[in-house]
Amino acid sequence: MPWSSDEYTIAFLGATIESGSATKYAFAINSTPPSNWDSVNIWNFLDTYKPYNEYENTAPKLDFSKGDKSFMGYLAGNSIDYYKVKLDNTPPEIRLSTVTFDANGAESGTAPSTITVFSGSSITLPGGSGLSMTGYVFVGWNTDSSGTGTNYNAGSSFTVDGNVTLYAKWNTGSLSSVLIEMVQIPGGSFEMGSNSGNSNEQPVHTVTLSGFYISKYQVTQEQWTAVMGNNPSYFTDSPASGEVQSKRPVEQVSWYDALVFCNKLSMREGLSPAYRISGSTDPASWGTVPISSNSTWDAVQIVAGSTGYRLPTEAQWEYAARGGNGSPGNYTYSGSNTVGDVAWYTSNSGDKTHEVGKKAPNGLGLYDMSGNVWEWCWDMYGSYSSGAQTDPVGADSGSSRVGRGGSWYFLAGSTRSSYRGSHGPVNRDDGIGFRLARP
């Protein structure tokens, strides 16, 4: 070993894996190299590596030579930008590991591409978007093709500690209870707010929206239970005559609860989850749903490019309630000027919620946009501005979230399409539920 045992700062420039050849790693010396080393560009050729626990699983082995100069050692550190080189005559064995995805009988679609990473690294498992099989629903990945191995949700974190094949997991018989019927809403512009409503509905302003999907019905108790394994609702018995109990809207769910449901359902269906909290899209890593205002949960982010379920924005909700672009949009309530035709509210509800879809739909085929239960929206509650907006997402700050549509115990006025309500994100009320949206 012609070098001393001094430390040298090395930058890791990247790695490529070439078909039929070894893995190529590029490094550059950022500090003054030994006097007998005449290049700042070092190419290292290795085909395997694995973590070295003493140095936090962060680095590959270095083993290279140039002319009569040679070096063997390993990188130690916890930054992707630079490492310290230390000489070691017996560096650890190092290796790559691969995760292969198998469509496991899918009739259409292609399994995600193989992922190759450092052993000990964590990856986010892809969804099964595009995979389909008649009579089955994609629900995640499993270590055994029979589905009897370990289950992993799409979108969850997976630690790679060796070569592994993950098989698409398919369930039968449970899709019907979870299936969310979505209605496509073409993009367009509308006048949001009302000059004849409450002051918080003003000023009326022009909003332009991209197209989106919104659920035909409010999320039901049946759907909630299938995804979450519980039913938090107050109205769990004594449905109105002729109505189905399980198809009443779920209620007593907070805004925080709704975030969990959205991501869990997305992961179940192989969609990329929309919400990220503390760097994770897997609700299992978020901890217990808060029962008081929580700054970490309030800082939730929408993952750019995600395909999963989410709460509609307030603008999306009002646009859909009014009938979208080109449909009758001047009704007071969602689909009618006669409140009783389209809404369950204090005068006709019988002091209870009702099975979804029992009143008339609006022009887009959406039910219960007026009445039955309030519906959570994504937005923080705030005042309107007069300027035109495109795809607005609400106020930048605030302590409450928007609720729309009114409910079974509110007066008719609250069920107007332009009426704005607000609730603390921890509020679990027997008059608050939600419906879903997707891009």
Set down the secondary structure blueprint.
Elements: E1 8-17, E2 23-29, E3 41-46, E4 61-66, E5 69-76, E6 83-87, E7 96-102, E8 115-118, E9 122-124, E10 137-142, E11 151-152, E12 157-159, E13 164-171, H1 175-178, E14 182-185, E15 188-192, E16 205-209, E17 212-215, H2 221-228, H3 255-268, E18 275-276, H4 295-298, E19 301-302, H5 314-322, H6 339-342, E20 374-380, E21 389-390, E22 401-404, E23 421-423, E24 432-433, E25 437-438
Parallel strand pairs: 7-13, 16-21, 20-24
Antiparallel strand pairs: 1-2, 1-6, 2-3, 4-5, 5-6, 7-8, 9-12, 10-11, 10-13, 14-17, 15-16, 17-25, 18-19, 20-22, 22-23
Explain this structure to me?
The protein has 439 residues and is mostly beta strands. It has 3 domains: 8-87, no CATH class; 97-172, Sandwich (Immunoglobulin-like), CATH 2.60.40; 178-438, Alpha-Beta Complex (paralog of FGE (formylglycine-generating enzyme)). It is built from 6 helices and 25 strands. It has helices spanning 175-178, 221-228, 255-268, 295-298, 314-322, 339-342; strands at 8-17, 23-29, 41-46, 61-66, 69-76, 83-87, 96-102, 115-118, 122-124, 137-142, 151-152, 157-159, 164-171, 182-185, 188-192, 205-209, 212-215, 275-276, 301-302, 374-380, 389-390, 401-404, 421-423, 432-433, 437-438. The strands form 7 sheets. It has a 6-stranded antiparallel beta sheet, with no helix packed on it. A 5-stranded mixed beta sheet has the order 8-7-13-10-11, with no helix packed on it. Strand 1 and strand 2 (23-29) form a beta hairpin. The longest helix is centred in the middle third of the chain and has 14 residues, at 255-268. 38% of the residues are buried. The model is unreliable at 1-94 (pLDDT under 50).
